[in-house]
Amino acid sequence: MNFQQIRNATVTLEYGGQTFLVDPMLSKKGEFDPFLPAARDDRNPIVELPMSVDEILDGVDAVIITHTHEDHFDQAAKDQLPKDIKMFMQDEEDAKLAKEAGFTNIEVMEEEVAINFNGVELTEVDGRHGHGEMATLAGNVMGVVFQHPEEKTVYLAGDTVWYEEVQDIIDTYTPEIILLNGGENQFDEGGPLIMGKEDIYEVYKAAPEATIVVSHLEAVNHWGLSREELKNFINEKGIQSSVLVPDDGESYSFGEDAANN
């Protein structure tokens, strides 16, 4: 299994002989409006892609869209992804948006039902995009569990905070690799929309044997947790060997025992 951090929640996963592109935000720096009201009002994305779009798309077999917020599926992705590429989405509402953009090969997932894609089992799991009313306003999101006989089980959590369902997913699937969105993004009111450092620590305590990779950092204007702050926190907790914080463009290969840059 090979993981590459692209930018924000955009990552690639080579798994079971297939290459998956997750939550493509392919815009150039500053190409769309900020998410407001927030502490910063920079236009998004606030950093450039670490590589060309052609490099990102090279060899991709399927795209997973956990939800259709602009920082996960932007206009640049709609314009530049091949219209016939295999695309997995969480519900008919999201699929409708993709169809309206011209995509023709969309599969709508169903929660807790495994889909076999060329030998890789993909299972949709739940997420909660914030707390209380904010989660309702943010709308539905999904995570995905990846399983293959010759690979470690991967739990892609997507845009979620820590709550009881995350614990249940970990207990059910015992993932060895957990991919978290951990930028503690938030608006001026309503609290975090995704995990912050304390949430990440809860995931570690729920799965101390797993390797955790934290994505969705420092790429859109409403981020609340920096890489530096997160690294300082995990060092203080003594869990730096279990929690990885990749820079944009950085990749890891996960073999039988460990992750290697």
Describe the structure concisely.
The protein has 261 residues and is an alpha/beta fold.
How would you sum up this structure, described in words?
The protein is α/β, with parallel strands linked by helices. 22% of the residues lie in helices and 26% in strands. The chain has 7 helices and 15 strands. It has helices at 53-57, 75-80, 92-100, 132-138, 164-173, 197-206, 227-237; strands at 2-7, 10-15, 18-22, 62-64, 86-89, 106-108, 114-117, 120-126, 142-147, 154-158, 177-181, 211-215, 243-244, 251-254, 259-260. The chain has an 8-stranded mixed sheet with strand order 6-5-4-3-2-1-14-15, covered by helices on one side. A hairpin with a 2-residue loop joins strand 2 (10-15) and strand 3. The longest helix is centred in the last third of the chain and has 11 residues, at 227-237. The chain is globular.
Question: Descriptors for this entry?
Answer:
261 residues, alpha/beta, eight-stranded mixed β-sheet, seven-stranded mixed β-sheet, 15 strands, 22% helix, globular, disordered C terminus
- Spans of at least 5 consecutive residues whose pLDDT stays below 50 are 257-261
Quick one: biggest sheet? 8 strands, mixed
* Assembly classification: single chain
Structural class: alpha/beta
Name the overall outline. globular
Gap between N and C termini, in Å?
Answer: 12 Å
Rg value: 17 Å
Tell me the helix content. 10-25%
Beta-strand content: 25-35%
Q: Would you report the number of β strands?
A: 15
Helix-strand pattern: EEEHEHEHEEEHEEHEHEHEEE
Mean pLDDT: 96
For the largest beta sheet, what order do the strands appear in spatially? 6-5-4-3-2-1-14-15
Number of helices: 7
